[in-house]
């Protein structure tokens, strides 16, 4: 997937890049609002927004609206992302082309969650903008979706991405504590997910 995205970005010609997923629904003001936010905040390398999640049938199941300001310093946002393996940035963002040109495209080694690494990398170099209104309805994956089934692999990759950025984000005195918290969260998520998959194999109707 990240290789396909990179080729699409290379082939595009615009000043701003929006990766839009075909299984999601976009409000008519999505591009207009995101673009205006980036233009108001020239130090921001990308902008993300609040979202609503929808079930396969289209019903809204949840709203995810963060209490963040319109502009957050990149270093502060990176530290916020490193608090949890759950990424606060929806994959559907608007990115300045110059940010990709200066700081690179999606990292192929990160696979399905290459966007997580991208947001951390961009936050290392510039600020982050946010729209606190749901502009996208994001479709939940099917229970048997290939990437849902492979969730353990992506938990491991998320932890690896966090380890990559911990050193530069925190002072030496805070790094050990942050690393311990990361490994504890990783262990809990990994074993909980792995145990759940094992139970389903042994007891398929559980």
How would you describe the overall organization of this protein?
This protein is an alpha+beta fold and 206 residues long. The chain has one domain (2-202): Spore Coat Polysaccharide Biosynthesis Protein SpsA, Chain A (Alpha-Beta Complex), CATH 3.90.550. The chain is 49% helix and 19% strand. The chain is built from eight helices and seven strands; from the N terminus they run H-E-E-H-E-E-E-H-E-H-H-E-H-H-H. The chain has helices at residues 2-11, 30-40, 74-81, 97-103, 114-123, 146-149, 151-169, 172-202, and strands at residues 16-18, 25-26, 44-54, 60-64, 71-72, 94-96, 127-139. Strands 1, 2, 3, 4, 5, 6 and 7 form a seven-stranded mixed β-sheet that branches. A hairpin with a 5-residue loop joins strand 3 (44-54) and strand 4. 22% of the residues are buried. Mean pLDDT is 86; it is low at 198-206.
Features:
206 residues, alpha+beta, 8 helices, 7 strands, globular
């Amino acid at each position: 997937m990240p290789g396909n995205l990179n080729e699409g970005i290379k082939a595009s010609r615009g000043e701003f890049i929006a990766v839009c997923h075909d299984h999601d629904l976009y409000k008519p003001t999505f591009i207009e609002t995101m673009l205006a936010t980036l233009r108001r905040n020239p130090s921001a390398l990308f902008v993300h927004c609040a979202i609503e999640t929808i079930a396969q049938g289209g019903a809204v199941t949840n709203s995810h609206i963060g209490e963040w300001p319109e502009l957050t310093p990149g270093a502060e946002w990176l530290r916020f992302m490193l608090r949890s393996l759950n990424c606060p940035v929806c994959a559907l963002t608007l990115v300045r082309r110059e940010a990709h040109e200066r700081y690179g495209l999606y990292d192929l080694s990160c696979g399905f969650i290459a966007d997580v690494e991208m947001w951390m990398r961009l936050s290392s170099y510039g600020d982050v903008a946010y729209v606190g209104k749901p502009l996208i309805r994001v479709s939940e994956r099917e229970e048997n979706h290939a990437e849902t089934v492979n969730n353990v692999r992506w938990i491991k990759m998320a932890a690896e991405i966090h380890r990559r950025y911990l050193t530069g984000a925190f002072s030496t005195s805070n790094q050990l504590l942050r690393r311990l918290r990361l490994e504890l969260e990783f262990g809990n998520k990994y074993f909980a997910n792995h145990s759940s998959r094992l139970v389903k194999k042994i007891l398929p109707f559980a």
